[in-house]
Amino acid sequence: MDAISEPYVQLIGVSKWFGTYKVLHDVSLNVKKGEKIVVCGPSGSGKSTMIRCINRLEKHQEGMIRVNGIELNDQQRNIDRVRQEVGMVFQNFNLYPHLTILQNCTLAPRWVKGIHRKAAEELAMRYLEVVRIPEKAHFYPSQLSGGQQQRVAIARSLCMSPEVMLFDEPTSALDPELVREVLDTMAQLAADGMTMICVTHEMGFARQVADRVVFMDEGRIIETGAPDEFFDNPREGRTQQFLKQILH
Q1: Which of 151, 152, 159, 154 is nearest to 109 (CA)?
Q2: Which of 248, 245, 214, 244 lies closest to 230 in space, CA to CA?
Q3: Which segments of the chain are extended strands (E)?
Q4: How far apart (Å, rounded) are the C-alpha atoms in residues 152 and 99?
Q5: Averaged confidence pLDDT in the chain
Q6: Distance separating alpha carbons of residues 9 and 195, to the nearest angstrom
Q7: How far apart are CA 22 and CA 46, in angstroms?
Q8: pTM for the full predicted model
Q9: Can you name the residues that pair with 15 across neighbouring β-strands?
Q10: pLDDT tens-digit profile of 26-45?
Q11: How does residue 2 score in pLDDT terms, banded at 50, 70 and 90?
């Protein structure tokens, strides 16, 4: 396989247990650079566990995960290299409440990458512009709405210059009227060419942004397809049942 078609993120036969419970069953997925993948499925289907394995927040027990050719194994050096490639945005914003928005965004570039404070602040302001809240730089998280805090969390991840962004149900903790501003920010990132793997139930976003939609159930990938194919002509009965329940 040549370098152009080589997957940027590669999962091959990945399985994981929590104690005696097998949460991932032989999961394989290839994601090319610049591709946008939306992962959906019922609660407990293994979606979040799968993407948390991609940056070693969870350790897989079987199979192989590679990011940009780097295998995720027990070597801390490899884990650190992968984490420099991969940014992650969680359901809950995980901002430090005692730090300003600017300080939240500059902390990792300064301490992990050794970037000088002034350069880190310039970088942070650039990404706060990208998520359209530069005016909140000197506010504290508690002074922002949930949607604004999640946009800060996206900016904070971008400050580490990741090649891949993982989103773990980034709108699920938000009031409905705040969801759109976060999805618009993610859609702009997608339009700018960011490689993205996003766990979400926002099917309108999946139709708009995804190159492929992946449906998971009981720790397995059941079906994968382009959005039009996936939503309009799902092949698997379990996929059809799920879509019937969530699409109104």
Answers
A1: 159
A2: 214
A3: 9-18, 21-31, 36-40, 62-67, 70-71, 86-89, 164-168, 195-199, 212-217, 220-225
A4: 12
A5: 94
A6: 9
A7: 10
A8: 0.94
A9: 62
A10: 999 999 999 999 999 999 99
A11: very low
